[in-house]
Design a protein that fits this description.
By secondary structure, the chain is of the alpha+beta class. Helices cover 22% and strands 27% of the residues. The chain is built from two helices and six strands, in the order E-E-E-H-E-H-E-E. The protein has a six-stranded mixed β-sheet. A hairpin with a 2-residue loop joins strand 2 and strand 3. The chain starts with a strand and ends in a 6-residue tail after the last strand. The mean pLDDT is 94.
Length: 136
């Protein structure tokens, strides 16, 4: 029987504290659902200054820190959802940075423009990862 397991992490584990009531990750069988990560530094809980590339890099580090708790990397991502506050202005720059996050085949992805994000961020990303049998 598959059961739902939810996980929360701390800044000492490289994951920023939550800004709302949620778990950082929920596992269902061999699927891992990671909540949307903001460009927040775990050590300070402050939003990283800078453009979409600078903020996206912090988001990537935050996602990677959650994945690492399960022995996973960005290459284990199956589906990525990206939210940009300036879709037209930031889409190309974001894509150029995003491509370097993966060494294997790219995961499926959705990228949408939104009117605003928490903590004044210009980018937020959540993902679904597959848990390999050898890391389960």
């Amino acid at each position: 029987m598959t059961t739902k397991e939810s996980f929360s992490f701390t800044p000492s584990q490289g994951v920023p504290p939550g800004v709302a009531p949620f778990s950082h990750a929920t596992r269902w069988g061999d699927m891992l659902f990671i909540t949307g990560q903001m460009p927040t530094q775990p050590e300070t809980a402050k939003t990283v200054e800078g453009d979409v590339v600078a903020q996206a890099e912090q988001v990537r580090r935050n996602l990677a820190a959650v994945l690492a708790q399960f022995g996973l990397t960005m290459d284990d991502a199956l589906m990525v959802r990206v939210y940009l506050t300036d879709f037209e202005g930031d889409y190309a720059a974001f894509n150029a940075a995003y491509r370097a996050w993966f060494t294997g085949p790219l995961p499926a992805r959705t990228c949408v423009g939104v009117t605003g994000l928490a903590v004044g961020a210009v980018v937020e990303i959540d993902l679904i990862a597959g848990i390999r049998a050898e890391t389960a």
